[in-house]
């Protein structure tokens, strides 16, 4: 008798939020979550058209809703979490993925502090707000949930450019370490993924080439 094939439905019954979910890594993650049997996904982004289109494209495979969310506004993030719970009855996974890159080389000698503050508001403040409100909801619901943050391989190395971006991803690692220590007693896991260069629209725009031109190893 043949052995039964293992199920790939690792996320069966789970409810997930993905910030920055309308394109790039967030979009790919949403599709992967669907393949693994997630019950519902909330795609959160400021890219309304892309978010709506993605939600519509997978709505026949699981519950899927797009919610406009600017992660620099804590009230948006809090509302995102509350709306998800109202729609789907709980929250199991928060993927804190929203982020941007430097708009210029941003070496330390020409660091534009206004651009630095905008980048940190998204890459660090947005992650902190997402962990905070997802963590609160999971603790209140006694959910043994999972919070994932997008860091970067750049956080572990120096760079001759994009100083503010590298700083922000180091801060995300520090946030993750604090949150995992503080939420672990509640059964909530907090981790980072640290990808190398990925040919997303964001990165291609940052290096001045189209996705079709990009070739990363």
From TrEMBL:
InterPro entries for the chain: NAD(P)-bd_dom_sf, Sc_DH/Rdtase_CS, SDR_fam
Superkingdom assignment: Eukaryota
Pfam families: adh_short_C2 (PF13561)
Family (UniProt): Belongs to the short-chain dehydrogenases/reductases (SDR) family.
Protein name: Short-chain dehydrogenase/reductase SDR
Phylogenetic classification of the source organism: Eukaryota, Viridiplantae, Streptophyta, Embryophyta, Tracheophyta
């Amino acid at each position: 008798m043949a052995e039964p094939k293992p199920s790939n439905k690792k996320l069966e019954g789970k409810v997930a939020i993905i910030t920055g979910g309308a394109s790039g890594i967030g979009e790919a993650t949403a599709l992967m979550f669907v393949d693994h049997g997630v019950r519902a996904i909330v795609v959160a982004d400021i890219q309304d058209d892309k978010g709506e289109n993605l939600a519509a494209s997978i709505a026949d495979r699981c519950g899927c809703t797009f919610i406009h969310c600017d992660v620099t506004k804590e009230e948006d993030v809090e509302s995102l979490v509350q709306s998800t719970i109202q729609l789907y009855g709980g929250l199991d996974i928060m993927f804190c993925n929203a982020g941007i890159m430097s708009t210029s080389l941003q070496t330390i000698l020409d660091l534009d502090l206004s651009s630095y503050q905008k980048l940190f508001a998204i890459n660090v403040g947005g992650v902190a707000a997402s962990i905070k409100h997802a963590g609160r909801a999971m603790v209140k619901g006694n959910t043994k949930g999972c919070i994932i943050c997008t860091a970067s391989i750049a956080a572990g190395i120096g760079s001759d450019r994009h100083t503010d971006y590298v700083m922000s991803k180091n801060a995300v690692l520090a946030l993750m370490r604090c949150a995992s220590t503080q939420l672990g007693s509640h059964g909530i896991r907090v981790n980072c993924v640290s990808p190398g260069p990925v040919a997303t629209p964001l990165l291609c725009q940052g290096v001045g080439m189209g996705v079709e031109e990009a070739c990363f190893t």
